[in-house]
Amino acid sequence: MRILLDTHALIWAMNGDARLGPAARKAIASRANQIFVSAASIWEAATKFRLGKFPEAKLLLDNPARILASMAIDTISISIEHARLAGSMAVAHRDPFDRMLAAQSRLEGMILASADTAFDALKVTRLWN
């Protein structure tokens, strides 16, 4: 399975946080799965940390490449097609980071690990509990 982590799922997996859904935790731990993080999630974590809204992101932001490598997580860049789909989704959801993750999940055929039920309206397959 190819799994894209939402930003909070990445931070919670990294910190061993109990808020990480059990199905997501099991899937992330399985070596049979390929786990990805979007460049958009690093951007979101940095933005929210700078604004004081996401202090848990500090460890990740000190050295994202090292943290992701230590967790055997691959990265996915933002492509023109990702940007086109994220910007053109005809849904009321306004969060640009969520729209990007939804676009990447759909175009790359990935399951999205997220607690956020707002993704359900964005037509992605979501994994959590």
What does this protein structure show overall?
The relative contact order is 0.22. The longest helix is centred in the C-terminal third of the chain and has 13 residues, at 96-108. The mean pLDDT is 96. α6 crosses α7 (96-108). The chain is 49% helix and 14% strand. The chain has a single domain (2-127), classed as 5'-nuclease (Rossmann fold). Strands 3-2-1-4-5 form a five-stranded parallel sheet. The protein has helices at residues 7-15, 22-29, 39-50, 58-62, 64-70, 80-88, 96-108, and strands at residues 2-5, 34-38, 73-76, 111-113, 126-127. It has seven helices and five strands, in the order βααβαααβααββ. It is α/β, with parallel strands linked by helices.
CATH superfamily: 5'-nuclease
Strand order of the largest sheet: 3-2-1-4-5
What is the ordering of alpha helices and beta strands? EHHEHHHEHHEE
Return Rg in Å: 14 Å
Domain count: 1
Question: Could you name the ranges where pLDDT drops below 50 across 5 or more consecutive residues?
Answer: none
Number of strand elements: 5
CATH architecture descriptor: 3-Layer(aba) Sandwich
